[in-house]
Amino acid sequence: MVEIAILGYGVVGSGVAEVIRRNHDSIKRRAGKEIRVKKILDIRDFPDSPDRELITKDPDEVFSDPSISVVVETIGGTGAAREFTQRALEAGKHVVTSNKELVAAYGPQLLNLAREKGVYYLFEASVGGGIPIIRPLARCLAANELYEITGVLNGTTNYILTKMEKENMDFEEALKEAQRNGYAEANPAADVEGHDACRKIAILSSVAYNEFVDYREIYTEGISNISAADISYARAMESSIKLVAFSRKTPKGVLARVTPALVPKGHPLYNVEGVFNGIMVKGNAVGETMFFGQGAGKLPTASAVVADVIDVVKHDGSGIGFLTMGEKAGRLVDINEDTGRYFVRLKSKDLSKTRELVLKLYGDVKQVEPTGAPGAGGGYGVQNEFAFVTPVAQELEHMQKLSDILQAGSVFEAAAKIRVLDK
Ligand code: HSE
C-alpha cells in the first residue's frame, strides 16, 4: 500500500481524490500496489465532502508522517505551494503537481532538489490538462532534436472563442460559462491575457529543448481585443481565431510567443474547439506529431495527476521518472525578428486612398470582406474598413509599415492586427 497526501482540495485536488476512489481497482492493477489518500491539507472546511474525514489544517500531519511517501500539490500559485513542495522534497517525499505557475517559475530548482533527494517531481498535469504531453516530450520523443511546438494551450480562451464563433455568444457570457464549468483560473486575466498559455509554452519548451525558457521573457498578447467583427472576417477567410502559443529552436536561440492567430481550415489546430487543447510538436526524426484532448477541467486534469502518482509508485527508486528543464541559455530571440503574415483591419476616412497606400507598401494584397454578419457586416460595425492579409515579413517591417499607414492620414485606426498561422 502506498499512502499519499493531497495539498489543496479545490477543483483538481478534489478530482484527484475522486479519480482514486472511482478507479481504485484499475489503478491498483496498473501501479502494482494499492494507492490510498491518507490526508488532505486545506485551510477551508468541507463538511459535505465525501473526503471530510481526511481533511486537516495542520501541515505537520502530512510532512511529519513517514508513511506518506507521495504528496500531490494542487494548491496553485507560488506561495504556500512552493514552501510545501520544498518541504515535501526535503523530507524525501515524491511530489506530483498540476501547478504551472510553480513549474514555470521554479521548475529547474525543484527538479534539482528532487534529484538530490532521490525522489521525483512530476508535473504532467501542468500543461494540457488530461493530455499526455510532458512524458511524451521527455521520454517517447527523446531520440529527436525537437525544434518546434505550436499549441492551443488554454481551454478557457478556446472555449470563449468557440462560443463566440459558433453560438454568437458575447465574451462575458462565454467566460462566465467557462468559470461555472471549473475551467478558468481564479483570476480570469491569467487566461484571457495569455499568461496561462505563456507559462505552459515555457514549460513545454524547457522540457522539449532541454533549455530553460523563462516565461517572463515570452511576448504575450491575450484575446481581450478580439471582437465579433474579427470573428466574422475569420469566417470569410475559412479560418478560426485561437490563442496560439508557439516556440521554435533557432540557431540564435529560442523564439517564443503567445498571440491570437487566424488558424486556416486544413491546419491541424483548426478543429481544436471548446475546452480542448491541441499541441503540435516537430522533431527531426519523427516529423510532425499532434496531441489532442481536454485541456482543462476537474477529472481530465486529475487523471493526469493520478497517472503521475502511478508512475511514481511503479518506478520508485529506479530514477526513470527524473525530468529536466535544462539551464537558462541566454535571452530569447527578439520578437522583432519574428516573421509572418497578418490580417489587418484599417478604419478609413478615404477607402480608395487607403487601398492605394496599402498596395504601394505591401504589393498586391487581397481585400477581405466579412461574412455572416447581421445586416451585411453593418451589425458588427465594419463600415469604412479596408481589411487585408499581408505578405510574409519581419515583425519590425510590419510595425514600420503600419506606422507609415497611420501617419499618412486617411486611416484613423488599425482595428485589428491578427497573426495568420502558417504551417
Ligand atoms: N485555466 C486553464 C485553462 C486551466 O483554461 O486552460 C487548465 O490549466
What is the compact description of this entry?
By secondary structure, this protein is α/β, with parallel strands linked by helices. It is built from 14 helices and 18 strands.
How would you summarize the topology of this molecule?
Layout: E1 2-7, H1 11-22, H2 24-31, E2 35-41, E3 55-56, H3 60-63, E4 68-73, H4 80-90, E5 94-97, H5 100-117, E6 121-122, H6 134-140, E7 146-152, H7 155-167, H8 171-180, H9 189-192, H10 195-209, E8 211-212, E9 219-220, H11 228-236, E10 239-250, E11 253-264, E12 276-283, E13 287-294, H12 298-315, E14 327-328, E15 339-348, H13 351-362, E16 385-389, E17 393-394, H14 395-407, E18 411-420
Parallel strand pairs: 1-2, 1-4, 2-3, 4-5, 5-6, 8-14, 9-11, 11-18
Antiparallel strand pairs: 7-10, 7-12, 10-11, 12-13, 15-16, 15-17, 15-18
Helix pairs in contact: 1-12, 4-5, 5-10, 7-8
L-homoserine (HSE) is lined by residues 129, 154-156, 183-185, 191, 196, 295-296.
Structural write-up:
The chain is α/β, with parallel strands linked by helices and 423 residues long. It folds into 3 domains: 2-129 and 298-315, NAD(P)-binding Rossmann-like Domain (Rossmann fold); 134-294, Dihydrodipicolinate Reductase, domain 2 (2-Layer Sandwich), CATH 3.30.360; 337-420, Alpha-Beta Plaits. The chain has helices spanning 11-22, 24-31, 60-63, 80-90, 100-117, 134-140, 155-167, 171-180, 189-192, 195-209, 228-236, 298-315, 351-362, 395-407; strands spanning 2-7, 35-41, 55-56, 68-73, 94-97, 121-122, 146-152, 211-212, 219-220, 239-250, 253-264, 276-283, 287-294, 327-328, 339-348, 385-389, 393-394, 411-420. The termini are far apart. The protein binds L-homoserine. L-homoserine binds at residues 129, 154-156, 183-185, 191, 196, 295-296.
